[in-house]
Amino acid sequence: MTTEIESILVENRVFPPPADLVKQANVSGMEGYQALCDEAKRDPDAFWARLANENLVWTKPFTQVLDESRAPFYKWYPDGRMNVSANCLDKHLGTPAENRAAILFEADDGQVTKVTYKELHARVSQFANALKSLGYQAGERAIIYLPMSIEAVVAMQACARLGIIHSVVFGGFSSKSIHERTVDVGASLVITADAQMRGGKSIPLKDAVDEALAMGGCDAVRKVITYKRAGSDVQWHADRDLWWHDVIQGQSTDCPPVAVDADHPLFILYTSGSTGKPKGVQHSSAGFLLWSLMTMKWTFDAKPTDVFWCTADVGWVTGHSYVAYGPLAAGVTQVVFEGVPTYPDAGRFWKMIQEHKVTIFYTAPTAIRSLTKLSEADPKVHPKSFDLSTLRIIGSVGEPINPEAWVWYYNNVGGQRCPVIDTWWQTETGAHMITPLPGVTPLKPGSCTLPLPGIDAAIVDETGEEVERGKGGFLVIRRPWPSMIRTIWGDPERFKKTYFPEELKGYYLAGDGAQRDKDGYFWIMGRIDDVLNVSGHRLGTMEVESALVAHEMVAEAAVVGRPDDTTGEAVVAFVVLNGPLPQGDQAAAVAKQLRDWVAKEIGPIAKPREIRFGENLPKTRSGKIMRRLLRVVAKGEPITQDVSTLENPGILEQLAQVR
Ligand code: 6R9
Predict the structure, then answer these.
(1) pTM for this model (two decimals)
(2) Where do the AMP-binding enzyme C-terminal domain residues begin and end (predicted)?
(3) How many Cβ atoms are within 10 Å of 198's Cβ, its own excluded?
């Protein structure tokens, strides 16, 4: 572990919560927040029991709240049984929510489809019955590789209904990623689409699945179900392939939800870590759903009248907690969007907020930064050209939001009326952890402010001791919470070592550096490990390095992040080729070849922005690559650090040249 924590700009402006929100929010005023925090502190078990009893429907009530006997493999509500899909859909039947729109789906081309809770329940049940008739059962694993669509939500919910564990692979990932995940989870089912539509273009999906399954080791896969989205040509394997519209034919819209243990895995979602191999983060059923739902109510102040829009793809954790599960459990109407924010123009988000009368909007800083640039350049796509008066809360997730972007978002999208809710959390935490509450927290741009009630967040040193206010350290969570990661699928040792290192007193180590100011507000300073954050997506430097060295031309590679105004960080790769140093056009051609290779190996988001070639990499005498120096070179700054421990200091000059 290293604590290379850079100091950050601390904003001094404070924005008090709007008075009307303080009055009627689900958590009202600092006293309301404090009362919940005190309740959780006084008797954590009683607090978590109360929330689970009041907010979830149990098939068999739990008698124990938390089993710590095998820590850090915590079990929550161990003897309770329930079903996630029943808690998102069935519970609304026969209530006023039944005829409310659950999903307003807007396709890439602008076409809108509305699905009520009752209709969604029927669709999920029908698809679940199709899976059942194919012999699928609780505990099996399904890979879902679908575009943003009603079907993506239906597929996830149908799996949950039967206790099938899903693993969603982001549609922008390569066939190699699908292959790795299919093998790792031992999937017996793949659900995909012929293609996805983004920005007016159709991008094949089924082809990538075919390629992945042809790579070998996927023998457990019995069926591939394909949803026809674009009507594009696909290859067909008669023994294995089925159309979505065929399998649901004649299936009943009544499918009793299968009760599972509270800790039955709901899903496995892969995320980058500090090694080359992404980790399969395993989440539970009850604990995960409870916190997704509570944070909908607390963080977003969700009410039945809200129109909620989270712009995240279901391929990321945000699309699990705040598209596929949380909003449905909360009974709100949500917008699901297939396309991209810049098509047909950069006013798309604002136009959609206006048309669907969105009240709660949740997006990523990278989107805000890129739309700021485009809006300021063209008044037609500027948020001020749209009626955004229905908005009451605007949220941010994925990376630190710089004060400049925060203020632009607050002024131009939120009309200086809506609090900017900067939510800090991770794939592993399942749902929000440190975040302002709209009717409670005075905001400071750039700070995710205070932990949610029940979340014991702290900043500690290498020994687990809390550091003084104003000092940087490791962000940890000292007590378990219901939506926490249960294990890394198939690798419990790695789970223990990564998240509960021995020297940290059994605390959960988030992997972020942070500090607290005099008011106890948290300021996240970025990752302490070799994980980059590109457009809010986690990317391991090792992952990109492994992809590069897998190319026959590459002898060695080191990857670092460079700060970037729009994407947060950009990938810069330093590469040593097998053979002479390329020059001029040849260097450009090889760089292009390698960038395309990385896109194929991992996905387009992992493509290095820049590739620099050298005859070697800067190394210590013990052979360790000095990434610290490469980060300076990548920024184009002069090296002022001591390089005397380097075996080959001259190499830095060579790498500094952009060829
Ligand atoms: C939900 C999600 C997690 C990492 C996390 C941190 C960064 C996320 C943030 C934030 C500062 C915020 N991060 N939200 N940093 N402020 N509000 O993004 O999950 O993809 O697993 O990424 O993202 O570094 O450790 P995930």
Answers:
(1) 0.91
(2) 543-624
(3) 17
